Amino acid sequence: MKHAFIITAYCDFEALCRQLTEYAAYFDCYVHIDKKSRVPAELMQKLKEIPNVRLIQKYKINWGGVQHVYAILSLLRMAEASGKNYGYYHIMSANSLLIQKPSDFCAFFEKNRGKNFVELSKEENFGNAEVLRERCRYFYFQFLYNIRGRHAAFWKRFEVVSKRIQAKIHVNRKRVYPYKGYLYCSLSADFVTYLLSYCKTNPRYLRGLKYCWVCEEFFFQNLIMESEFAKTAVHDSLIFSIWDDPSRKRPATLDMRDYGEIRASQKMFARKIDAEGASKELFERLVADCFDK
Questions:
Q1: Of 45, 46, 5, 55, residue with least CA distance to 25
Q2: What pLDDT is stored for residue 105 in this prediction?
Q3: Can you tell me the distance from the alpha carbon of 137 to that of 132, in angstroms, rounded to the nearest whole number?
Q4: Which of 60, 63, 51 is nearest to 33 (CA)?
Q5: Domain enclosing residue 203, as ranges
Q6: Could you tell me the end-to-end alpha-carbon distance of the chain, in angstroms, rounded to an integer?
Q7: What integer pLDDT is reported at residue 124 of this predicted model?
Q8: What pLDDT score was predicted for residue 293?
Q9: CATH number, domain at 203?
Q10: What is the structure's pLDDT at 260?
Q11: Are the C-beta atoms of residues 216 and 68 closer than 8 Å to each other?
Q12: 8 Å CB contact between 39 and 13
């Protein structure tokens, strides 16, 4: 069974080059580089020359904006159109890293063929379901500006005022998205074929979704749970990450103190890896675990 890695990247391109060189010996990789990113011409050429790697730079991606979903859909369409008959598509960020040997990775998905591994959290599982519903009730415009960019303070204030005005005039979008979770997941070929067809014939789904707060966290989850593929969905993204350590960012940047827990987790990927910074030693150790002969 063939696997396609669907990767979005915006920084750490030296590390990305190292990852792709290792991955491409076993898997086909489809990569979108943020159009805002400045990649040295020599390094871009090096990335393009890696066998089994297809690379595009199509969208400027804002944090939380629908452009991230558009980029992934472009890569999925490219991969499906290749005619290589992939069994699985693995959606991942460039700061994620494969943490299982390719043979073990392939064996896992052969054993679980047809299942879709995606984080599925329902609104009632959150401490404050009303906060989650507000993410869909009002209009957010993250596709127009970068709330984590140069003018972050201004745009954060804009969103506070915008939401306050919408609440006052009783804006209440009718579409409900009860499931949320990681955008990153592992999807079967049958479901990918279905979702690409659905998005083509039902453009209203994406048009409505793009006004949600961090819309990417609702995209795969609600589409799969409203389809015949709901019975194939497994509530597990197969990604090791740390979100609940108050002394670290969310998600935490992983380092060597997390190595034992990563290895014990039996997950397929780990995130968030800063391969050129705090995670450098961990990155080298995990790559050696997976790919050293």
A1: 5
A2: 97
A3: 9
A4: 60
A5: 2-123+180-210+218-291
A6: 22
A7: 52
A8: 56
A9: 3.90.550
A10: 95
A11: yes
A12: yes
Is residue 192 a contact partner of residue 118, using CB atoms and an 8 Å limit? no
Which three-class secondary structure state does DSSP give residue 270?
A: strand
DSSP one-letter code for 181:
-
At position 272, the amino acid (one-letter code) is K
Residue 113 domain-assigned (yes or no) = yes
pLDDT given for residue 190 in this prediction: 97
Residue 199 lies in a domain: yes
pLDDT averaged over 10-residue windows placed end to end, the chain, 293 residues? 96 90 95 93 91 94 95 97 96 95 97 96 61 87 89 93 95 87 96 97 93 94 95 96 88 94 96 92 94 74
pTM score over 0.70: yes
Contacts of residue 274, Cβ cutoff 8 Å, sequence gap at least 6: 12, 95, 253, 280
The answer to whether 85 touches 190, Cβ cutoff 8 Å, is no
Instruction: At 29, list the tokens.
Output: 């990789």
Q: Is residue 141 part of a domain?
A: no
Strand-pair partners of 117: 186, 234
Please say whether the beta carbons of 31 and 54 come within 8 A.
Answer: yes
Provide the number of structural domains found in the chain: 1
